[in-house]
Amino acid sequence: MTAKQWFNWHSLSGVWFGLLLFIICWTGAFASIAHELDWLFNEPVRATEGQSNINLAAAYEMVQETYPDAQIGIAFTGPDTYFAHDIVMRMPDSPWQHVYVDPYSGAIQAETSFFNIQRFFRDFHMHFFGVFDSIISYYLVLIFAVPLCISTVSALYVYRGWWKKLFALTLSGDARAKMASMHKISGVWGLWLAIVISFTSIWYLFEFVRMDLVDGKTAFTDVGDFAVNPLPELPRQNKPQLSVVELFAIVKGARPDLEVKAIRYSGGYFYAEGQSHDWVVRDRANKIYVNPYSGEVVYSQTASSQGLYWRLSDTADPLHFGNFAGVWGKILWFIFGIVISFLVLSGTYMYIKRQFKLRRKDEHRGVVVSLSLSFGMILCICFYAQQTIMGYGIAGRWPELPFASFIFLSAWVSFTCLIIVLWSAALLNLCLKNRGSSFKLGMN
Fold it and tell me: How far apart are alpha carbons 53 and 106 in whole angstroms?
């Protein structure tokens, strides 16, 4: 392919997919720091300072005793030491909710709705709030891995010798020249994350296609036929189970290397997952199943024991969101996620501006069609967002959010809408100018 052809692929991927691709990248940037945003805007999420003396199992039992009628789904440690333990539970005839336990004082700090800032960005970024209420919603997001990958690969050909231009910012010339300079230098600095996001997004798309069309396997080991290495479900027995604290101690004894991040019951077993010696893997890469009646360790998995494919599968998430390097890694992913979002919008604007300058009158049709389809999709997303969010509330009502979290999400939605409206208006204005100029040329 010639440089001009690469440029056309690079530009047209933004013209046709720019708005929705921006939304995906924009929400992904915030999703990478969503837990920290909850910590910032929701006080019960925060742990007090001190010596940790309440482990996850003790917090689990504390919630069990306080809410004897509750069904506990899973218990998490926080992403860092300044987070409270998070026990997800539900009362009879009520939706799931978070209960936060301070790991230092042992105090149950609050019950909050399962819907929070992290859930908002996860539902938005992962499947557009389940738009069309089916598996299609996941593919509607994943398919955008293709134009993102095209834009990233083509940029390497369009902007040759990019590594020499890390500081080549020029603010002279007209508005288009300034925008072009900012676009290029942003692309140079954000290229590493664009490659990472493109690769992991294509991987997610491949995994979904494999799961849906080939083998239906979603895990290496689990209880059920959906696992490559299925464990038989453990039947109930007529004898008491060991306590969660006792089972947790068995896990630590069997796997002293395991930093437990989550515990729950799965298929009758006591289950724990977390981090060990393997680097850049999600928590469920390391897991252990214990018979809660006998205390026998039924299965213990490490990230490296699954084989190459599932090891790569467990690496995709940490690479995609940058959560393997602590809060500073997440902040880095957030900053450059914003950069990629800017690249999507600025690249499309410059391309249309260029077509106007070259007096190519047909380009406005593609822009108008693309924007019409994108806005139609946004309206569908808004409808399903309302349905999804209300599903987290009691009796079909909106879930109660901490006031600060509500203000943040409201401000974020308003700001995002403003960006979309201003960018769309700028594109349409260029198209109208282009069309008007072409009409005048035809009259002359």
Answer: 8
* Averaged pLDDT, groups of 10, the chain, 444 residues long: 66 75 96 97 92 90 96 96 96 94 94 96 96 90 91 80 74 74 87 94 96 94 95 95 98 97 97 96 97 97 94 96 94 96 86 66 69 91 94 88 96 96 84 56 41
Predicted structure pTM score:
0.92
- CB of 406 closer than 8 Å to CB of 414: no
Residue type, 10: H
What does R_g of the chain's alpha carbons equal in angstroms?
A: 25
Which residues are registered as beta bridge partners of 333? none
Residues in the chain: 444
